[in-house]
Amino acid sequence: MTELERQIRRRLTFAIISHPDSGKTTITEKLLLFGGAIHIAGAVKSGKKVRASVSDFMEIEKDRGISISTSVMGFEYNGRKINLLDTPGHADFSEDTYRGLSAVDSALLVIDSVKGVEERTLKLCEVCRMRHTPIATFMNKLDREGKDPMELLDEAERELAIGVRPVTWPVGQGRSFKGVYSLVERKLILFHAGEVERPTEFVTIDDLSDPVLEQKVGTSLAAKLRDDVALISAIYPPLDLDEYLSGEVTPVFFGSAINNFGIRELLDTLTSVAPCPTPKVSEERIVLPEEEKFSGFVFKIHANMNPRHRDRVAFLRICSGKFERNQTYFHVRSGKPFRTANPTAFMAQDSEVVNEAWPGDIIGIHDTGTFKIGDTVTEGEAVNFKGIPSFAPQIFRYIVNADPEKDKQYRKGLDQLAEEGVVQIFSKPNHHNTRVLGVVGQLQLEVLQYRMEHEYKALCSYRPIEMTIAHWITSDDEKALKTFVDEHARYILIDIRNTHVFMSESPWSYERIKAKNPAIRFYPTSEMVESRA
Ligand code: G4P
Question: Atom 7 in ligand 1: which residue has the minimum CA distance?
Fold first, then answer.
C-alpha cells in the first residue's frame, strides 16, 4: 500500500448536523475529550463558557450564544485521523452549513429524543440525501422522559425518508434509564446517573433469557428489553454497510451526551464503518482521492480569526493527492500559480502550520483576497468541483452607505464579506452603486452590519425592496435573453459573476412570467446555472 493510500484509509471527515439545542456542542466536546484533543476537567458542568472556548471563533457568536461559523477540529482515535466540522445549527446561517457539508464524507445526525425530528433536521438531511452522504444517527437525552424509542425510529424513518437500523437499544428512559443494549455485540452497557467519571460497566449477554439481565436492570426492564429486541429483530434487518455508505439507511445509537453515555460506542462504530475520503465530482470528471496529483477546493472563507490582523483564512478541502507546504500549485479560476508558506491545520481554536496534508484533510490558507468560495487549486489541471452551493436568498434589501465619508471602507467591507459568503450581493446592470443584498435569514443582515462596523469601521443601513424571489436566468438563444432583460429591466439584477437574476414580487407573478417566456431558463440558485450551462 502506498503512503497516499494509507493516509486516505486513516482519514474520517464528518460533520454533526442537528436542530439547535439537540446536543451537538455537547457531543463535539465529548468526541474531542475521547480523542484527547481537549482535557477539560468537569467540562460537562461548565456549560456555555467551555463551549465558547472550544468551537466558537467570533466574538459575536459568544454574544449571541449561537455557533455562526463552521470550524474544523482534528483529532486521532482508534488509528484514524478524524476531521470534525462544526457547522452552525441556526437556520439563518444555513448557507454556511450546506457549504460545510460539501467538504465532508459523512454526517452524524443528532436528534433530541424529547422533541424528535425537528425542522432543521429535515432540511439538513435533505441536503445529505441529495449528495448521498452517509448519515449515522444519535438519539440524545435518553436521561430525560422523551418519546418512546420505537416511535422515534418510526418518526425518523418516515420524516427523513431514510431506512433506520438500530445498533444500540435503550434500557429504560428518563429516571429509569439504565443503559443501552448493543444489538451487534450482544452486550449490556450500564449507565450510572451522576457518575460521569466512572468507567462504563459492560455485561456480555449472548442470550437475553440469561437471568443476569434481571439482576442488572430489574424484572420489568428486563422483560421489556426482551420484548423490544424481539420486535426490532423482526422489523429491522441488520445494518448493511453498503446501504449505509450509499445513504439509504442510517445506523441509530441511543445515549446521553451530557452524561457521556453512548458516545464511546458511537465513536468506536464510526471509526470502524464511516467512509474514508470519497471521490468528488467536478464539472469535468470524477476526481479520486488516490490520484497522485493534488487537488482541493475552498468551501469557506473566514475573516479576522485573529482580531489584531486584517487577515482572511480560506478553508481548503483536499480531494486528491498530497498537499505540500511551499509547493507551487495552480489556482484554476485566475489561471495563476499559487504557493503557500503557512498552511494550517485546526484544532478548535488552535492551529498549527503543517508541512503536508492528505485527502479528507481541511487546511487553512492565509489569504489576501485571492480566493472565492468554490475555487479549485490543483497541480495544473483545470477542474472545477461541483456541489458547493450558493443558496437561494429569501430576504432582499437595498443596502445604503450610512457614513458617506467612509466610502472606501464600506466598499471594501461589502466586497470582502460577500466573497466570504456572509451575504449575496447583486447590483443593477449599469448602476453598480445600487446594491441589493440577498440573505437566507434575518440574522445575517445583523451580522453584516455588526461586522461592517467592527471590522471595517463602516456603517450601513437597509431599505426595503418589493421583490421577494430571485431566479438566475440563462437561455440558449442570446437574442431572446437580451430581449427578456430589456423588457423586464426593472426586475433584473446581476450577481458577482455577471449572471442575470430575475426578481419577482410573488410566486404567482414568477410563474406567469416564466410561462410567457419558454426560451428562458430559470434557476433558483446560481450553482444550478453553472452546472447545466
Ligand atoms: P446544540 O449545540 O445542538 O445547540 O446543543 P448543546 O450541546 O448546546 O445542548 C443543548 C442543551 O441540552 C444544553 O443545555 C445541554 O446541556 C443539554 N444537553 C445536551 N445533551 C444532553 C443530554 O444527554 N441530556 C440532557 N438532559 N441534556 C442534554 P442548556 O441548559 O441549554 O445549557 P447548559 O446551561 O446546560 O450548558
Answer: 23
